[in-house]
Amino acid sequence: MVEELQGIGMTSRRTRLRLVQRLRDHGIRNERVLEVMTEVPRHIFLDEALSHRAYEDTALPIGYGQTLSQPYIVAKMTEILLEHQPEPPKRVLELGTGSGYQTAILAKLVAEVFSVERIKPLQDRARDRLRKLSLRNAILKHADGGIGWVEKGPFDGIIVTAAPKELSRELMSQLADGGIMVAPVGEARQMLVRVVRQGDQFVTTEIEPVRFVPLLGGVVR
Ligand code: SAH
Fold first, then answer.
1. CATH architecture type of domain 58-210
2. Are residues 123 and 63 in contact, defined by beta-carbon separation less than 8 angstroms?
3. In this structure, are residues 53 and 71 in contact, taking their beta carbons and an 8 Å threshold?
4. What is the residue with the minimal CA distance to atom 26 of ligand 1?
5. Nearest CA to ligand 1 atom 17
6. Residue 174 beta carbon below 6 angstroms from any ligand 1 atom
7. The whole model's pTM is what?
8. Counting atoms of ligand 1 from 1, which one is nearest the CA of 122?
9. Does residue 118 line the site of ligand 1, with CB under 6 A?
């Protein structure tokens, strides 16, 4: 039994190494990001019926009409947050916990991750998975995260994993000075943007077109 489990572990690590090579080929350069994506098992963030597809570079359904983001996008967004200067971000807010995969990647890289999800059953599953991986520095909240998590701010980084029509001032104001936000913005056409706070200025750069589920209001119990 133990051998069998180790066998599975080895196979999935080999598969992850292939995935990480693809991420490199697509331009992901941050070695820390590539390292944690080699470590964190993506298959445990999926239902068993889909877990064999975990190491394809593609978005996959997680129920409730939601999706686990494509590994390339997870890597790209994480890499952008880690551009934080003069040192890596310490406190990061995530909107849209979903499966918890992006949360897990962040929890390996920063001191504290605060993650908000509006669909309770998804949050419950994510919590179990993070516990299994002993990632205790991820703090989850069931709420409409559209307006951020003001009590826990300001944040060095904010990552939005569902697309708002536009970025709200309220959310941007929860960035610390020098903080970085990365978010998909738009409806039918969406753009991944980076926002860097410099005092009262929010310097916005378009990164690349993306396709995310929409950021919705209200909660599901
Ligand atoms: N980061 C996730 C991506 C999940 S898809 C992962 O790695 O699996 C986006 C998630 O955002 C969905 O779970 C959806 O329910 C959630 N979401 C959408 N609007 C939200 C809102 N206003 N507040 C909190 N979560 C929201």
1. 3-Layer(aba) Sandwich (3.40)
2. no
3. no
4. 96
5. 96
6. no
7. 0.96
8. 13
9. yes
150's tokens = 């003001």
Q: Is 66 in the pocket of ligand 1 (CB under 6 A)?
A: yes
Residue nearest to atom 4 of ligand 1 (CA): 98
Kindly list the domain boundaries of the chain, sorted by start residue. Answer: 58-210
Tens of pLDDT, residues 51-106: 999 999 999 999 999 999 999 999 999 999 999 999 999 999 999 999 999 999 99
Identified catalytic residue from 12, 51, 69, 99: 69
Active-site residue 115, yes or no? no
